[in-house]
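Thanks for the sequence, V.! I ran NAD(+) diphosphatase right away. Repeating your input here for the record:
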Amino acid sequence: MTAYGFSLRHVPLLSRVGADRSDALRTDVDAAIAGWADAALLRVDRRNQVLISGGSVVLGSTASLGDKPPEDAVFLGRLNDGRHVWAIRAPLEAPEDPDLKTEVLDLRRGGQIFDDVSAQLLATATALLNWHDNARFSARDGAPTKPAKAGWSRVNPLNGYEEFPRIDPAVICLVHDGHDRAVLARQTVWPPRLFSLLAGFVEAGESFESCVVREIAEEIGLTVSNVQYLGSQPWPFPRSLMVGFHAIGDPEQEFSFNDGEIAEAAWFTRAEVREALDAGDWSSDSSSRLLLPGSISIAREIIESWAAQD
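Predicted structure:
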């Protein structure tokens, strides 16, 4: 338990683990090639969409791609049955089973229905493929780079300089008074009634906790204390890692919107938040004065976990 009896009730949806990442195989070329013939293949299109059936991503075979992984394929790990799993950026294809009912979804629209294995595979594939799409030239000298380590790095063939997938850490924090009220805010670009937690990117030379204090002061003018870690979640849109916290604020302190990102903020009681959660999320047609994020975001889990406290 964290301070004030507040911790996450569930693992955030995109943090779930369902497959073995098998990182040792990324540098074992012989093993990768040996497992390729029987490997499962995840196709991800240019919009980061996949085929899904029920709660599972549809995995095809590698038979049509040759006797070894193509250069732009990325290794995702191993399934429980031992099969290797790879992903490629490619148009979606009809499943091998013609009777299989499928739909086209991405993480944003379908993350809440994916099973653990599918959530992990697609979150990893989306992050890696997005990075490769935008890292084809060296950040050091602009030279073309080539994929290496089964898609987990890129190498400059001229000088051997190796680059790894970029991740941009961001904090996200629920500010509460230690009792029955919490702050929720609406960004300027959001429609009326849509509220969520405060978030921001970590700056160079800054800790997560310091970032929480700075961002909240910049966005709504509150001075917070007792910053406590809750959990984290990959957010591959395109390359973030959301690191969740809660902190104590003073309801008597006035709001000030200093950086122009926040249009309004307010203190809501736990009862008001529970009512909004019962009404659904941002996509609902509820007439509630408060609409909250969907379950794919760690923001939802943090809000639900706080609201569930007595």
